[in-house]
Amino acid sequence: xxxxxIAEHLRGQxxxxxxxxxxxxxxxxxxxxxxxxxxxxxxxxxxxxxVDEIVHVPVAGPDFESDVYQQVLAALIADRRPDVxxxxxxxxxxxxxxxxxxxxxxxxxxxxxxxxxEGETIIATRAFYGSKVHAEIDFPGPGPVILMLRxxxxxxxAPGGAPKVTEMRVSLxxxxxxxxxxxxxxxxxxxxxxxxxxxxxxxGIGEKEKIALFEGLAEKxxxxxxxxxxxxxxxxxxxxxxxxxxGRTVKPKVYLALGISGAVQHLAGMKASGTIIAIxxxxxxxxxxxxxxxxxxDLFEVARELEKLY
Amino acid sequence: MARNPKYDILFEPxxxxxxxxxxxxxxxxxxxxxxxxxxxxxxxxxxxxxxGGYGACCTEYCSISPESDDTHRVSARLWDDDDVKNLxxxxxxxxxxxxxxxxxxxxxxxxxxxxxxxxxxxxxSQIPSDFEHLTYPKQMDxxxxxxxxxxxxxxxxxxxxxxxxxxYVYGSHSYxxxxxxTPYYNKRTDEYGGSFENRARFWRETIEMVKDxxxxxxxxxxxxxxxxxxxxxxxxxERDCLPFVQMVDDIVDVWDINVSGISEWGEDATxxxxxxxxxxLPWQEAVKKVSKKPVLGVGRFTNPDLMVDAIxxxxxxxxxxxxxxISDPWLPxxxxxxxxxxxxxxxxxxICISRWEIGGPPLIxxxxxxxxxxxxRGWHPEIFSKAKNADNDVLVIGAGPAxxxxxxxxxxxxxxxxxxxxxxxxxxxxxxxxxQLPGLGEWARVVNYRKIQIGKLKNVEFxxxxxxxANDIKTYGAEIVIVxxxxxxxxxxxxxxxxxxxxxxxxxxAWQLTPEQIMVExxxxxxxxxxxxxxxxxxxxxxxxxxxxxxxxQVTIMSHQAHIAKYMDFTLESPNQNRxxxxxxxxxxxEHLPTxxxxxxxxxxxxxxxxxxxxxxxxxxxxxxxxxxSNEALYxxxxxxxxxxxxxxxxxxxxxxxxxCVAPRLIADVVFDGHRLAREIDSANPEEPLPYKxxxxxxxxxxxxxxxDEHRAxxxxxxxx
Amino acid sequence: MKLVVCxxxxxxxxDEVEFKPDxxxxxxxxxxxxLNEWDACALEEALLIRERLxxxxxxxxxxxxxGSEEALRxxxxxxxxxxxxxxxxxxxxxxxxxxxxxxxxxESPDLVLCGVQSSDSVQGxxxxxxxxxxxLPCVAVVKKLEWAGSGPATAHRELEGGLIDIxxxxxxxxxxxxxxxxxxxxxxLRAIKVAEQQEIVVIRGPSDGPxxxxxxxxxxxxKGHGAQMLEGGPDxxxxxxxxxxxxxxx
Lengths: 310, 721, 250
Prior knowledge:
The complex is a heterotrimer of chains A (310), B (721) and C (250). Chain B is of the alpha/beta class and 721 residues long. In chain B, the strands form 7 sheets. Chain B has an 8-stranded parallel barrel with strand order 3-4-6-9-10-11-12-13, surrounded by 6 helices. A 5-stranded parallel β-sheet of chain B has the order 16-15-14-17-28. A 5-stranded parallel β-sheet of chain B has the order 19-26-20-21-22. In chain B, a hairpin with a 2-residue loop joins strand 23 and strand 24 (601-606). The radius of gyration of chain B is 28 Å and the shape is globular. Chain C has 250 residues and is an alpha/beta fold. Chain C has 6 helices and 13 strands. Chain C has helices at residues 37-53, 69-78, 93-104, 126-134, 189-197, 234-248; strands at 2-6, 9-13, 31-35, 57-64, 82-87, 111-115, 138-146, 153-158, 164-169, 173-177, 201-204, 214-219, 228-229. The longest helix of chain C has 17 residues, at 37-53. Chains A and C meet through helix 2, helix 3, strand 7, strand 9 and strand 10 of A and strand 2, helix 3, helix 4, strand 7 and strand 8 of C. Strand 13 (177-183) of chain A pairs antiparallel with strand 9 (164-169) of chain C.
């Protein structure tokens, strides 16, 4: 099973999802070919266990442009004839991979979080109906398949191995969508609905005065502070911070719940979160049913220790 | 949806003496204003809870004799066979749902003023009641003791005849049996007073007698206050209660355990302002440790996890509820069906209790507009008929408690489309800031419940951040328009005492503020000395006093009445609220009316000073809590400027208004207002409430004439000349 | 000036689910339908552009069975000028794009706006696939859009972690719109009623071409067994938590 991985990088750094794609490709048997597209492809760290070959594709600009990646991917497919192409289900990749699949009439699936093989058939698993159900899918066509894999599911391929390094030059037409520059996001009003990482506090914190402690911790950890209903009812925090059925429904990558018992209305607002970690001193707290990780501990002690690590 | 297995324990049956209760949900005795004289209202009210899954439902306190007459408050009565007949309806309906029926047999002693019966209550010692200060009991001799004990026995027999499965010998809240047990009430020197055994004797004997009479097939319950928080004179847990439990445990089938006496029974029926759920668990646990019988008790339980925990950790065998059963009679069923987010949680405002305290009116509930209306208006909190005019679109303007309730019920009645439009960014209206006053956090459940329900209704859309003008309404496209724009606090000191503004009052000035200005606009309260002028008499003035005092202000609260926050007497919040204000150093000024405000000074006069001598309070800031006014402007514009005729041309067939914008009132009443309109939106004239059934005696004219003639004949025969 | 917006009626499952006997799909009784949140933002963005530029025709397009017209009705009520449904049973993003192109190409749009993804399938791919079929450039995950009405547009793309990638794109172009770019407006009852009466043009799609994938079976995800409990003192727990967070936030 010949696998082509398109490396994803940002400002000179390879993104972790690339290493996950390599691991996934390796599990499919390989050989695994990783394409590094950029102005300085050799500077990208792609020497990982499972990589058989790295193809450098030098292009004019260091940063992602949809037209560049579309054309390079099409050229790589024509030249290297992979059976499966793995890209991350990421903001950049959704801007080009589906276009290539459409152009070349390939099999295609996005947000794949499990893969297996039956002989030469690839079977992928993705979710439907808003993650409520899963489905196994396969790809009837004769040609190769483009799969966009969900980040953080596969392990990171370890450094090592001795891949062959080659170069491929692709002549490109001018990009119709051109990268101009990067910018930091504006410091807008808190929108807990769009945060990747929420640190959420509940009645367990005890008093209003303790909120400042957790505001500080959230800032250090790079989290946005959210709260459960009782703190809003009591007037300690504005309702824009409230997670729950009568507040906001959130789906961050990480939801760290401190001192939240897990009332039904709260769970309804956050149970779709990617990873839920809960600290509560009550071992029977309902939040532990919904959490992926939990600890029965004093939330202030854990908070203090966390602060030291950031 | 299915029941979460961790709640299975709540649905396990349990034996109560000769009876078996099908689960652990028990509606504890509580008043509703119906008694034995409104038997259908009573039966419909109680059986709704049985329909909702309660394993047992109780009467309110049930008088065993005309000597135990609490008029003007309404108790149930089992004085004669007609009372038996009336209460049997309740028992039948409960049995129909598989629930047990319980009668709380009550003799009040001096706490029952007998204003209807004109009897004299008996008591262990002749000391006037600490609750009804003008009522003295007759000091009981042994004959009196036997006579009253016989009243219990006779009443128990009547209760059994009516179909009750459980009878109480009720002492809690300082009623007769507990009066004997408690030195505060019992100064006797015979074998019914003095030592613990003596003080316990009356209650023990009474239980034995009742058990002898009916205990073979009727369960015997004892409701006891474990601690009156009065020190030595009051009932004490270790000295009186636990030994009593051990003494009579063998003959009691179920213990109903609470705390407090009658004059501060807010320690039992805890307002959410002061206590969280489960306040009495430590006392209930203490009794459970020494008893071999099932123990039940209340604690404003709304959360099934807390209920399970109470049972699993050996604090209670049965979860009793009073107020949570009023706000949601279907609590057990919703837990059983896994519909936890449909539970309408009690907010602990004690508005229900306030009606009993006032004496006479039926109960009401802030969260549940159907409480008390089950029979007289035929309202079921969970079942709604499709509106006959459902093929209409409705625009509700204002998502405060009235608007939310109305939109929700219209949605449940299947109106084609309901748009609930709100100028603010979220639902709630006044209830978006009132819960932020100290201690009122649980009151936010009024908003939370409706938000969740409205979110589930496909035909109801909430539109925030939209302030509609009269013209917007005209062209909105609704066929029915409902204005729910609420009220505001007067900015000129207009008040119900002087019926006039206060000279110098003007909340547009920086040093004068209204509640909304403080809570919503965040207007700064300048300086240190704050005078709150409170002519309202409910929670607003004292809550702001508490808030500002906690923020470091020196607060004076001034009322024209004899008593600050009078309505909080009825909600049982007064004692603790006053303690709080006292602790915070708030100066309480009563019987004074402001005459004039000027920068730095509040001028006032004593209301009974005929010469109105001028008294001055220094004030850096004045908070005007004088009265509220309806936000009428939009409705008036629609009616007076635009005109209903013009609106009709746009397809608007009706314009109604609900809630505070009609007249400011209790939150419970505006929720009711919204509910009623939605229930009656398809009546001939929805603006006018439909007549409700009044359970009253309707005279049989032939029979009355005969009775009058007989009476006249008897008078004539007796020689009246 | 023509702005085409591609929308989808998404089907949301509540907490309970039953499958069809063949195990290939869910029982439709358990589904509730609504206009996709991302597409509502796309439509709102088109309406805002129309307001900014003074004039433009906003056309809403969907591919689906007749029930999907509910999404178009919502768009019309919000202010779209016209709506077109492509009669289609396409499920995957590539097939859907092929259907949509039948309605979009004849419109010769100046901009095509799609939502980044649908809340039910979360494919994130239909807009990009469509751009290829239309031969137009594509900018995905747009959080802010500036355009004078002709010439290149400036799009702010929101990358993972919040960093903004500012892109200049030649028009006509396809843009996939991220939520948070605007607050979709509400429709009055009148607008909803008028939209009920408006004609929706229905055309047949090409209904050709292979699907991108084929569903073998559908099933409920295995239920979690509750949380994996972390052991140790507060310091060990904190270390483990920090590790998990680092992993998950990559």
